Fold these 2 entries.
Entry 1:
Amino acid sequence: MRRYFGRKLFTYTLTFFIAATIDWLIPRFMPGDPVAGLMAKQGGISPEGATALVQYYNNLFGLDRPIPEQFINFWASLLHGDLGRSVYGHGRPVTEAIMAAVPYTLALLIPAILLSWWAGNSFGALAARRKWLDSTVLPVGYILTATPYMWLGLVLAFVLGFSLRIFPLSGGYGFNLEPTLTWGFLTDLVAHWMMPFLSLFMVMFGGWAIGMRNMIIYELESDYSRYLEALGAPRGLVRKYAFRNAMLPQITGLALQLGVIVAGSLVTEIVFSYPGIGSLLFNAIKSEDYFLLQGIFLFIIVGVLLANFIVDIVYVIVDPRTRVGMRGGTA
Amino acid sequence: MTDVIKTEPKPESLPGAPKAEATAPARRTRGEFLYFALRSKKFLIALGILLVLIGIAILGPMIDATDPLAQQGLPMQPPTADPGNWFGTTYFGEDVFAQFANGLRATFFVGLLGGGLAALIGMAVGFTAGYRGGWTDEILNMLTNVVLVIPTLAVLIVISSYLKARGVLFEAVFVGMTSWPWAARAIRAQTFSLRSRDFIDLAKLSGRRAWKIIVQEIAPNMSSYLFMTFILLFGGAILMAASLDFIGLGPTGGMSLGLMMFNAVTWAALTLGIWWWFIPPGIGIMATVGALYVMNVGLDEIFNPKLREI
Amino acid sequence: MSLQVTDLRVYYRTLAGDVKALDGATFSIADKEIMGLAGESGCGKSTLGNSLIRLDGRMKYVGGTVTLDGVPLPIGDQNEMNHFRFAEVSIIPQYAMSAMNPTRKIGKMTAELLESRGERYGEIKSELLRRIDLVGLQRDVLNRYPIELSGGMKQRMVMVISTLLDPSLLIADEITSALDVSTQRAVAETLVSFRDHGFVKSMIVITHDVSILYQTADTILVMYAGKLAEKAPTATIIEDPRHPYTKMLISSLPEVGIRYANKKLTGIPGSPPSLLSPPTGCRFRARCPLAFDRCAEEPPFEKIARDHWVACWKATGSDA
């Protein structure tokens, strides 16, 4: 067990190190000069002022130090939780900007993932049993899972927001409201949350439903199912075993999907101007705010790695074979 | 969204993913394949849809040779208004259909190139890891895990945002280099089970070199599986590229379906109700990827007799 | 009469038509009799064995009757058969090594299976433990997962589970095929001991390995291409077979102690006919060295001596 987790931790730490290094490397080796890019936005400064400003920026970003020193500084400040300052946020510390946006994203992601996983799996299992349900769930599932996240967001926004005016089109809450703990504010919050949530939920639901359906069919055709049926076991018992066994790959599937899900939530937030990490990223790109960009990137990486680790733990708890294998049982 | 692999390392859970069985299916003769292919509803319908889309992509810009970025008519016209602009016009009066057809071209191109590259890398890593085993396998596994866990969109965003001029080639290459891990895993698993078979021992005894054995003995035995994996990578590449384009990090210049949606959102198509600007590109992607997935399921049934319905 | 089968036909549905895997089987098995069912791959023995308990996948029941202890078995009706499964008719499947749920402890799975069939696990447990001892397994196997057991151990566990409710008829489908020779012998002996202890009344042992049957079976039924060829006591089959196919089958067995330095091992040339559109007349005709014109008409499965049936014109002396 320790070896298994030790290995996983090693891989994750290695991944983080590589990702962070890529993150640090890119601005320094890409064509173009980030400082020059910043300067291009200034406009209308005297030449002396320009040189002073360039020097200031180089100093600020540590670009005037030798490369190895920059690398060490990078890690030092990283471990201090200092991700630099955001240009887009007018000098606001990047960490602060990210932390303000995170709750919105998590409020979107966590319910969407959990609910779609649960609902999709249940539906998939049902579809594997009933032919009529199967013929509807299957095509719908394929269509949903082939739908690009942002497009579904656009469609929902258009139908429910623009045409039918049920839900608001953008933002985290009404522009005229202040975040307070009142009922009115909370309902407004939920109203703004509903469409991005729905669009994430629907696409993921399709994927899980199809996957579960396939897994259940696979399990129902397995040798242990046949044996139970040959011995006259009732359908309920066979189905119960099939369902439990089919869930296991779905759990691993969750870990594998995390990258895709994160990407999906990013673009969905952009469609709705929902003030989470996605919109922050979008704005960072548009305003070429490199610090913010890199900070968000690192944050996403850490989040995904953490989530992967949690899924690994859950899997070990749920699948008895992993524990046996680690105990060194004979096969 | 390539969600076809569901377990560690079982690629069944994703929709339409080919089953990674312990024994690879035997080689099918061309005649047998055609016989079953022509009877498979899923395969034929999906193929039909794809052919229509490819037709639009290739012939569209030739028939309607208008420049997608030039003003064609009055801005913001719905599809029925002007007979020259089948899908209506954009905020700037550009022809939406021209954009759609050109965008389809770019989408197919990226999917093919990106998917193809991912398939090549996946095969290279998967075959080598599966065939060699031992330390090579361990190292390649580590590499696969690392690339697998990194959220690729985030990386692509960071890299792309630093590049001022981006070509379609760049996008395809990026997409290809980041979506191969699940394919490598699946191919590795299959190679493992094939490598202990007798005909491989025979090949080894006759002194063939490793890569030759892989190319001439192992790969042809998995040909149907490889093909299905490629189709899924193709679909996944299209979705990934669309996401990139949508954020505004697609190729500079040129047209793509994701770019259409980006423009639509940027120019307030939602609030102005210009639905014909963003609905068609989404449908285009959905139809293409959906058809690919369904075709994959159809192919699975054709190649794997156990799945066929009587 | 413990088991009586009359003109049983079971076909497989395929895209190309019906494969007549079992095309009219009539025989009976007495109480306490272990009948071996032998033949080459594709002769229909597995189909026969499996059809008596559960029609799998593409199998379809076409006709014929089966009576067990005087009660007709509704093999065509999946729901009705449930009443008989496990309690009256049981099976040790060909896939015994993967027959147990990999994510469930063996004891738990057995308990759940028994409870679902209306038995009280508490009452049966002591008997279960006794039988586990009998087959040479440790008692704590109930606390283990299938992955922790070796192939032979899993096989024996499945044997225990399948016979737990003392069925009248046990079908053992190729249970020695995947084992090494010494384990084969152990398993074969266990099987006979089950009958001797009274856990099982009669048994059908399906195998393509005639030598195993020599050790375990009282009678042997030889099948060919979906039809029955010969049924007789084991000694008769081995020493004095009447059907040409059986003769060639027995003679193709290498004998212990004889060296084949000068003489080649003879097999039976040719291969079995397609069961999609089987030939008329005797199905062995094309490969039979004794074939003559009468063989164009299908020989019935006739009794030629006490407990000895053959389907061959030559054997029944009708070669006028």
Entry 2:
Amino acid sequence: MKRSGIIEVALGVLLVSGLAGVWQLQKKIDVQRQALQEERDELVLRSPKLIKRMSLEYAPLMGALYWTRAVQYYGEKHRLQQIRQGNLELLWPLLDITTTLDPNLIVAYRFGSTFLSDAPPRGAGDPDHAVELLRRGVIANPDYWRLYQDMGNVYYFDKKDYARASEAFAEGAKNPQAAIWMKVMAAKIAAEGESLETSYFLWRDIYQTAQEPQIKKNAELHLRLVKVDLDLRELNRLANEYERRSGRRATKLSELVQAGLLPQVPADPDGYPYVLGEGGKADLNVYSPMLGEKLMNK
Amino acid sequence: MRVDTGEVFGFLGPNGAGKTTTIKLLVRLIFPDGGSARILGKSIDDVSMHQEIGYLPEQPYFYDYLTAAELLDYFARFHRLTATDRQTRVENILKKVGLETAKKIQLRKYSKGMLQRAGLAQAILHDPQVVILDEPMSGLDPLGRREVRDIILELKKEGRTVLFSTHILSDAEMLCDRVGVLVGGKLRGVGTPEEMVGIKTQGMEILFEVAEGKNLPLLAKATRTGERYRVQMPEEELYGAIEQLRAAGARILSVAQIKPTLEDFFMNLVEADRAQANAVEVSGK
Amino acid sequence: MKNVWTVATNTFREAVRDRVLFNLVFFALLMMGAAILVGQISIGIEESVIVSLGLTAISVIGLFIAVFIGVGLVSKEMDKRTLYALLAKPVERWEFLLGKFCGLVMTLTVNTAAMAVGLYLALWTVKHTLEKSDGWILVAVYLILLKLALIVALALLFSCFTTPFLAILFTAGIYVAGVFAGDLRTVQAVDLSPATMNLLKGVSYLLPNFENFNVMGAVAHGRAVPGALVRQATLYAVVYGAVVLAAASAIFSRRNLK
């Protein structure tokens, strides 16, 4: 009896130490492979049609899988601040596959429209593919008018094609459930093209209505930058007014306050007060992080 | 070929002779290339005829996830019986074949003998007029074989017709009114067991013990195993031999007829048959 | 008809006592749990993933049961010769076949119902509420069940005249072919003659079009399934299934059971 008990214990110890050994070995192997600098950005299968065929009846599930992959791919690059021109090149194929597998995955279109078309370091800088994605989206989901909103944004912000932007907003406005401003925007853009007010409005709507956190964050970033531009424009206008009244150029914003043109010295979205810089032109405070943000996102 | 009502008819033949095939043709497991057969006046194609027949397949195997009681109940449902009737019959038949204590045990735990008994039970549960058994004794120990023999005799007493196949001569001799002999797929003859096996005996055999050194001319023809001697002689020389042994003070252990072996029996049949050239094909006729 | 029911209930009983089925259902429920986890890491599509994954699990596991056990329904009985005593009873061969079919379909119904409950539980765990739009999931499960019944019929058909291994292969093959049947109709290849195109088209109509029963895409996003589709799919399954079972009966009725 005792004999077999000892054997059992010995076997148990062997098993545990064997597994521990395997664990350690795997760690070492991982290090080796890291050293090999294997490119982990791989999309072995590229053909959406092929993948759809291979999914048999389970395409929507595969679509969800590829969507998850797309989000992780973007998220990782964004987190490491590695987005540069040309190195987000898997985003389009991943979203292409995702929407081929599940044409009704709205969030994929919206995500794609933002991060495909937006310029680096925020996105891939590929507005043409964003448009292609959205066109597919509206065909599969004709009721979802916000895809037209996204399309309008892409044409307006990234392609600077105001005619097409206006068309997109007008098309979306046809949906009885669409927000009223779609129609208004269509007309405004057709008439004026780009304007800070329009840009501000469009980004604010995305910021307020988007549910996907990364899209929301991206819109917030743009919103802040446009807000700064709007503020600076207004401050310059007031500075010019001061010069017109007093005959000389103000050197400090407090002078404008004293002249009654401003209630107080306004601050930028980060809370740092604006200043008047060289030549009496309004500018961001030297200490403000918005300066860096502005530089990075030009 | 014809089996009469109330007969116990045996299908005899070596393995591979076609006994199982014939039986399967009768119960519609196999379809004939030609010819016809009738049971109880109805064609074998008539499913309703199956109400009146019971069948035990060769080396039966049943649903091993069922108990004996469940199996019998399941099979009984195909017959026109009321629920209570069914229940009573299942109980009775389990007692009859000696499976009452095991009735709640799943069939996968049954021994071969118990399976054979369960098979027999399902074959006679519904009181069929005709009972067809394919090698009912196979795989059974002597006790089991005796039980099956008893059941067959009981069926005969109840006036039922029993058709069974076997390759064991002694079983056929004991039970059958008539036998049909199949060799190589052909029916070689039908008749009573004695008629069929009625080959003249090949003589007599005496088993005896005798002390050493006795002068016995018989010993010259005898084979010895240890203390025992075995000697064969034609029937007419039997009493002379016995006298010899008695005079020598030998101890006679047994005196028996030399029975032909099964091979001898069938060999003779084939030869006799060639002489006659009167074969009846068994393909449903 | 009574005989059909007798065989069906026994087939169901056999399935219930077969522990493999329980393991499969348990595995499916595990998948539901996994779906909850997967949903956590897929932003914005948590519910959609749970529904997709759940329906996939139901479909795939149901498929395995339908193919492997479907083929075994008749093969096992022929191999083990449990069939012999049964067919000597006053029961027609087609009654036996139909009974086996019904028994397995009943089993599948119970299994998919159990898995559907698991799916709803997973949804509840995540949403803490169930909406009207979640009712469409039941419709999707019903259509999956129709598909599985058709596959059982096909499995029965093949097992009546080939070995179990080949029957499994053929049934799986027809399943895959049937999924692509719709694509076959619209195939665009430059160098195919009109005759070949017509042939392919004909074949695509004769194959079982399993895409008819697939509404996962719509249901995963809470969209409605048109009633007309449900009615027509049901009719399709009934008619196609009847044809297959009739063929199986015809073949089985003339088969010699050596």
